[in-house]
Write a structure and sequence with these properties.
By secondary structure, this protein is α+β, with helices and mostly antiparallel strands. About 30% of the residues lie in helices and about 35% in strands. The longest helix has about 50 residues, at about 340-390.
Length: about 400
């Protein structure tokens, strides 16, 4: 792949001003070639400007990198990549490659209780030393390169083990950065958005707290070849007002280092835990207050006369159906777990109160009817006894 650039310079002499333009080619191996295109004087520019209505002078001011620095950078890259094999890790067969890891959290959220996942936007930074990329230069101690150089050197095969989906950012250019120090130190950063799995324990829902992990490791290199280490201040976060934790409060984070033992070998496992606590405001308005009001409404039937059968029956049936609807709506915010949550327990107790009010009237009506029926039978028996006596 070849990139083309146009560089212009402005020269002032006694006879006037001259502009020279060169066409510069940057190949995929960093080779620079230039071809002169055209040179023209200030009089040419003025003649071109005569066609404009406002006859303004045209000047070109452009900051150019000194040619010596360009040549130094080109020469350094050419020498570094000349015999470089990107398929082999640094210090292969000698010692493990140490990867220092840092994470900058741009945002977290939303968190999905139904899908058991959360979304996180991060800038993932990895630093290691590749002795094959050492160079001697007093003028250029650090080479800051864009994504075009990423595919030309060896990179760690880091994967996120609990990610369901991950996307890199490519607008307006690939969000990747590569820096090479003259001592062989490499910094590689990448911005990505990850949908990571988080197994929520919902026994205390909606008063639950969770630690959602972000787990990463090498895909193919065991710990005797690649070792991950956390940098100092390894995990940093942005301003939380831009986060989308609608139903949660961010309580803090912590990072750990473990070893994952598999049949393919032992791998260094790096984990960041994000501690979240659920806010109760939404569920208080949508579930708790309506359930409490429905229970209180069902108790109104106690002040209605027992002989007002239609009124008490309609009120009891309405409150029972309302509690059934509220219970169904409350369950829609949860996955279909087999255990009982705190909200399930609360809604069930409210439903029992409402149902008990309905049963209370049924029992009252039954005993009232039996009492009246027995009174009538007693009156009839007394009347018949009196009649026989006469």
């Amino acid at each position: 792949m070849t990139a083309t650039f146009y560089c212009c310079a402005q020269i002032h002499t006694n006879s006037g001003m001259f502009c020279c333009c060169d066409k510069v080619f940057l190949t995929n191996r960093g080779l620079l070639k230039h071809h002169p295109l055209v040179s023209f004087s200030s009089s040419d520019l003025l003649e071109y400007g005569d066609d404009e209505e406002d006859h303004h002078d045209t000047t070109v001011n452009q900051m150019l990198v000194p040619r010596s620095h360009q040549e130094d950078a080109t020469l350094i890259l050419n020498n570094l990549l000349k015999e470089y094999d990107k398929t082999l890790r640094p210090d292969i067969g000698v010692k493990p490659t140490v990867i220092d890891v840092g994470i900058y959290v741009n945002s977290i959220g939303p968190v999905s209780s139904i899908d058991m996942e959360y979304q996180i936007d991060i800038i993932f930074a990895q630093t290691w030393v590749d002795t094959r990329l050492r160079y001697n230069s007093s003028s250029m101690r650090i080479l800051t390169l864009n994504s075009n150089m990423v595919g030309l050197i060896w990179l760690p095969d880091t994967i996120f083990r609990n990610s369901k989906n991950a996307d890199s950012h490519w607008i307006t250019t690939p969000n990747q950065l590569l820096r090479i120090w003259n001592n062989g130190k490499i910094l590689y950063t990448l911005r990505m958005t990850i949908n990571a799995e988080c197994q929520l324990q919902l026994h205390n829902f909606p008063m639950d707290e969770h630690s959602c992990p972000l787990v990463f490791s090498s895909y193919g290199y065991p710990r005797d070849e690649i070792v991950y280490k956390w940098k100092r201040n390894s995990v940093e976060t942005s301003d939380q007002k831009y986060w989308r934790l609608y139903q949660f409060d961010f309580m803090g984070l912590r990072n750990t280092t473990d070893v994952l033992t598999t049949t393919a070998g032992d791998y260094v496992l790096m984990t960041v835990y994000f501690d979240l606590s659920r806010r109760m405001g939404y569920f208080t308005i949508q579930t708790y207050i309506p359930c409490i009001l429905t229970v209180v409404l069902s108790w109104v039937s106690f002040w209605i006369k027992s002989d007002a059968t239609p009124a008490r029956t309609a009120l009891g049936i309405t409150t029972v159906l309302t509690m059934t609807t509220l219970s169904t709506v409350a369950r829609n915010s949860l996955p279909r777990v087999s255990y009982v949550t705190a909200m399930d327990l609360f809604v069930t107790v409210c439903f029992l109160f409402v149902f008990a009010a309905m049963i209370e009237y049924a029992m009252l009506n039954y005993y009232s009817y039996n009492s009246k029926h027995n009174d009538r039978q007693q009156v009839c028996c007394v009347y018949m006894y009196v009649c026989r006596s006469v």
